[in-house]
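Hi Y.,

Following your request, here is the sequence exactly as I used it, all 334 residues.
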Amino acid sequence: MTESIYDQMAEKIFLKGSKIIPRLFSMIVNVHEAELMMAMPGTPLQLSEKIGKSREEVEKMCLDLYYKGTVFKSFKADTVGYKMCRDMVQFHDATILWPDAPQEFLELWQQFIEEEWPGFARMYTEILPKPFTRVIAVETAIDAGKQQILDADSADRIIETADILAVTKCTCRLIAHKCDQPLEVCIQVNNSARYSIDRGTGKEISKTNALQMLRDCEDSGLVHVSMNKASGGHFICNCCGCCCQTFPLLISEGLEICDPSRFLAEIDAELCTGCGDCHERCYFNALEPIERDKEETVNRVTVEKCMGCGLCQTTCSANAISLKEVREIGFIPA
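Below is the corresponding structure, written out as tokens. Let me know if you'd prefer a different format.
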């Protein structure tokens, strides 16, 4: 069978062999638009020369594709160019937030996540040096007097040092519908914020509101996740354990698809009452009861499963849990 242009597009975003990704492209991009995307990057003038259409027609097509989420703007001096989404993450996050995305498109995305994504995720963990994302610990769970908290360790500092912030819906929960956790809690930072505001997929929020959103997400038992880089990141996701693109595979298979924070939960057995409240807060099954004597149990941390999110510490009424620094500064990619 002759390879379609939609198969070529899937290969271009590193999903060669997918049966569903070409279908997703074909649902929102016609053949002429697909040809334009495959000719990118370029300015409307450059692209018009490549595909033999007028500059005005190409410019309109580029803007339509931009709002759909299949292409992104690029800037050089005062000139605006366009480039195709570079990978599955961009294609996933941008198109799912397109306000006019048909329901069957969103449902097909979830079918991809459930049927094909696990195989691609396993492949990516074998070839990529580090995961794309990393957990950020709840800051109040860390004793700042005893250990160093880097800017990249702190969701609060990422927000406080941002130039502009926006909030969008969580793309994972938007298509999965597996829980009733808050939906509009994905915080976009700086360029990502500007992008979402420009497309109309996000709305600008103040730093005060963003910080309150972090506290509300912590209360709801959501885990902060950001880009795995020392210079901060473009987003702070607030993730659940069922709808998230990465957590279910991490939980069920131990797949190293998201890095832990630099911290690890530690339980003081003398203070622990064995109440089990922390178990309900841990998505990663990193806490287990052990017998202290014939009548009492206490909880213990399974080190290899703990992601260092700190949610267990914030729910411990006995103050038996603390987060300790166990990974050096260089653990976070520069």
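The first strand starts at residue 71 and ends at 76.

Thanks again,
Q.
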